[in-house]
Amino acid sequence: MLVWIGFLIFVFVLLALDLGVFHRKAHVVSVREALTWTVVWIATALAFSAFVYFGYEHHWLGLGLEPDPVDRSAAYPDGRVNDARSALLKFLTGYIVELSLSADNVFVMAMLFSYFAIPRMYQHRVLFWGILGALAMRGAMIAIGARLVAEFAWILPLFGAVLILTAAKMAVMGLEHGDPGRNVIVRLMRRFLPVTNQFHGEHFFVRASTTEAGVTRTGWRGVWLLTPLVPALVMVETTDLVFAVDSIPAIFAITGDPFLVFTSNVFAILGLRSLYFALAGALHVFRYLQPALALVLLTVGVKMLAHSWFERVLGPDFNLYLLAAVLFILGTGVIVSLIEVRWNDPIGRAAKRTVRTLQAWIVPDHLVTTIAREGRRTVSRRRVARA
Questions:
Q1: pLDDT tens across 279-295, in order?
Q2: Cα(76)–Cα(85) distance, rounded to whole angstroms?
Q3: How many whole angstroms separate alpha carbon 238 and alpha carbon 108?
Q4: Prediction pTM value
Q5: Rounded to whole angstroms, how far apart are CA atoms 1 and 330?
Q6: Strands 67-68 and 80-81
Q7: pLDDT value, residue 363
Q8: Distance from C-alpha of 5 to C-alpha of 237, rounded to nearest angstrom
């Protein structure tokens, strides 16, 4: 219990420093600032991984004493206890998987902020409070999931099947995100709550004046109104809840240790805000990132279904191979996307020229036209030479 209290205090201190010191005043977060904070959050997660290693090595505050239900086998019916190395690998793998799956969340956030016309200088405040809600919701889901995984062995294959189906949907259909204005939650808020269309700085609530404009219903004069930041915040929370349905099974495919599951999720969520400001305008460039994410989900899902077989074939370094595979898939998706951005236009033009050349010499109609055109050019060149 002490390790959980200590970790939560550590997280709240980080959030307090973030909002109360570094982002005390609302401002537009530049790409450079966002990249700097992304590096800071990644470095913080890596530093915490050192605590995970030594904590499980020396059993600080009771770490590394309970069996991991994901590692069930005939020799370990309740699961094998994580040593320092396995705990480190599982934490890093879970963190990378959760952080990479957050990329799709960035797409949706950009769409939501665009729909609600949230100024860039207020987006950080919305994401900050969205992170707090996401931590609470994921904590509850992880607690329920850990209990189910520990009690029922059939939950893991079920999670694996969910991940494989999600991967297939992501690869074939993509992620369809409807119009936020048609969302039932947004429609109910606008129908039954006093929502104004005007922004009042970074405030979520404001007292309505007698001249207040943009109120969705009459009769709300002199009461507290919700600014457009509130519907945006509610949709951010709802979106994270939907994405958690995929990401939570993904982390339980790697480990069933509640502390590793929760901490890896927390650090991925903490880095989501800076990741949004760093990538929101450039995610369309990474065309092959979504297929890479689908392949990651497929890999993790298959691993969950055939965990015992993979561990028997690959040996004790199985988790290291899984981490390497995840990094390789994500790196390949990013590199191929960047290569296409760099060379797409020249290659496309060269390909079109090649097709036109082949067409000219293979298709009969084009061949006749080409011969006639070349004949006219030859006659013209000879006339010029005689002159």
A1: 765 666 777 777 888 88
A2: 18
A3: 11
A4: 0.77
A5: 35
A6: antiparallel
A7: 52
A8: 24
